[in-house]
Write a structure and sequence with these properties.
This protein is an alpha/beta fold. The chain has 8 helices and 12 strands. The protein is elongated.
Length: 227
């Protein structure tokens, strides 16, 4: 039995797919928003994600990019968008397969089985070691070393650092950080992000005035760099 996360906001389509996938022997968890999908993917670790692009809170391609920041779970895009540009954007953002609605349960099942066969036994990226300068972020053990010494981080501080470490030298907007790390809609709550960034800086041995790893890009967000 495979654990499938279904991200589909249409209740009729969602119910039909849940029924079909359950009959095929999969354990299905269904959500209707990108924020809920990111939260589920981070806590339940599905074996496969089926993602619609037309979500109410965030474009599916943007949600896919955020998901790729924290997981390499196989993703099938299941959408009514059949244009070549949509396919290309999705595949470039990290999708493993693309299927256009309407489709039969048998067609979807064949795609799922083929993708699971291709990824079976392949090491998951969440077991990788991320290295930025003398920072070593072990995603499997959820441990951080700085210059060989352990850095004690809270769960949220670790998730924040790990998300940035997967994208070194890239500016990450506040909205993206909040949605991916906190798993909630961003309502301009900069204080929450700023407090956690401040705590993280302190534990990394730096300050906002003299940053080494974690740099603020005013009016945009943050980036993690090698000193």
């Amino acid at each position: 039995m495979s654990k499938v996360l279904l991200v589909e906001d249409d209740p009729v389509v969602q119910a039909a797919l849940v029924h079909a996938l359950t009959d095929l022997g999969h354990e299905v968890r269904a959500v209707g928003t990108a924020v809920a999908a990111l939260r589920e993917a981070g806590t339940r670790e599905p074996d496969l994600v089926i993602l619609d692009l037309g979500l109410p809170d965030l474009d599916g391609v943007a949600a896919l990019r955020m998901l790729r920041g924290v997981s390499d779970v196989p993703v099938i895009i299941a959408t009514a968008r059949d244009g070549e540009s949509s396919v290309v954007r999705s595949l470039n953002a990290g999708a493993d397969d693309y299927i256009v609605k309407p489709f039969s349960a048998e067609h979807l099942a064949a795609r799922i089985n083929a993708l699971l066969r291709r990824t079976a036994g392949v090491p998951r990226l969440d077991r990788d070691l991320l290295v930025v300068g003398d920072l070593r972020v072990d995603l499997a053990q959820r441990q951080v070393l700085r210059a060989g010494r352990m850095v004690a981080l809270s769960r949220r501080e670790f998730d924040l650092l790990a998300y940035l470490a997967r994208r070194p030298n890239r500016v990450i907007p506040r909205r993206e950080l909040f949605q991916a790390v906190w798993g909630q809609p961003y309502l301009g709550d900069d204080k929450t992000i700023d407090v956690h960034v401040s705590w993280l800086r302190s534990k990394l041995g730096e300050t906002a005035a003299k940053p080494r790893y974690l740099h603020t890009v005013r009016g945009v967000g943050f980036k993690l760099v090698s000193p």
